[in-house]
From TrEMBL:
Gene behind the chain: panC
Active site, per annotation: H39
Name the UniProt record assigns to this protein: Pantothenate synthetase
Family to which this protein belongs: Belongs to the pantothenate synthetase family.
Keyword ATP-binding assigned: yes
Length: 288
């Protein structure tokens, strides 16, 4: 696996694939490192679909607020390289902040409405930081496909809107959330959890499962589903709920009636760690 840190070198390496004698399709898996099975599932999806796979590791300062965990975000570069190499990644792009942002940024990419909902409402500027860095990665790598996890459903909605609005010539591929046996969605931030917090954190996926079960059993009242989620989350000791909502999967607007597909999304602090999770409730499946 080749490791590249300079955006210029990365761009010419990727162009090499696209302009070779035989054009090769290129998949990009953007990450902030501290890799887990969720990330590896994205790499595998890219390897299945594309001739070449590029992964990036960059802990993006722009997407962290001043009181958030940028400084202590887990950085496990050596282990990450071993995993990516084992998975058959062709190039790892791992720029430093100075390489990615050599001068103070004058330009940002903002998706203000969608990016101000769910996580965007409580993490001011977060999705501006995400959209800006992902836009830079798209311009540098120019992939045919970019792979993201369903776990970050709000991020997916923001990036899909960005790709559509700015005419990026690539397809966003969304891969299913990977979970531990106890239901907890894989996240780099799970590393922060104590054993006891790890148990409390299971309330997030449990609350989603209860919504799925209730809908499968005929419940159609969004108000009831919302309050049952809140009840589940509040019953867990150290949890502080940020949001628990049923929303449109593309616009992230709260819904008052179930849609054919409704995104059920939750975010909560478990101790000092903020976790997110979600599921899609599919009325077609629920009624079949
Ligand atoms: O999902 C992430 O890890 C990050 O938000 C991303 C997409 C790599 C942008 O920094």
């Amino acid at each position: 696996m080749r490791i590249v840190t300079s955006p210029m070198e990365m761009r010419s390496a990727c162009r090499g694939y696209q302009r070779g004698v035989v054009e090769q399709s290129l998949g990009l898996v953007p990450t902030m490192g501290a890799l887990h099975e969720g990330h590896l599932s994205l790499v595998r999806a890219s390897r299945e679909r594309c001739d070449r796979t590029v992964a990036s590791i960059f802990v993006n300062p722009l997407q962290f607020g001043p009181t958030e965990d940028f400084a202590r975000y887990p950085r496990t570069f050596e282990e990450d390289c071993t995993l990516l190499e084992q998975e058959g990644v062709d190039i790892l792009f791992a720029p430093t902040p100075a390489e990615m942002y050599p001068t103070a940024m004058q330009t940002v990419v903002d998706v203000p409405e969608i990016g101000g909902r769910l996580d965007g409402a409580s993490r001011q500027g977060h999705f501006r930081g995400v959209a800006t860095v992902v836009s830079k990665l798209f311009n540098i790598v120019q992939p045919d496909y970019a792979f993201f996890g369903q776990k970050d459903a709000a991020q997916v909605a923001v990036l899909r809107a960005m790709v559509r609005d700015l005419n990026y010539g690539l397809e966003v591929v969304v891969c299913p959330t990977v979970r531990r046996n106890n239901g907890l969605a894989m996240s780099s931030r799970n590393r922060y959890l104590t054993e006891c917090e790890g148990r409390d954190a299971q309330a997030l996926s449990r609350s989603l499962r209860h919504v799925e079960d209730a809908v499968a059993n005929g419940e159609r009242s969004v108000a009831h589903l919302r309050s049952s989620m809140m009840g589940d989350l509040k019953s867990s000791g150290s949890l502080r709920v940020d949001y628990a909502d049923l929303v449109h999967p593309e616009t992230l607007e709260s819904v008052e009636e179930l849609l054919p597909e409704t995104l059920v999304a939750v975010a909560a602090w478990v101790g000092k760690t903020r976790l997110v999770d979600n599921c899609i409730v599919d009325l077609g499946e629920a009624t079949s």
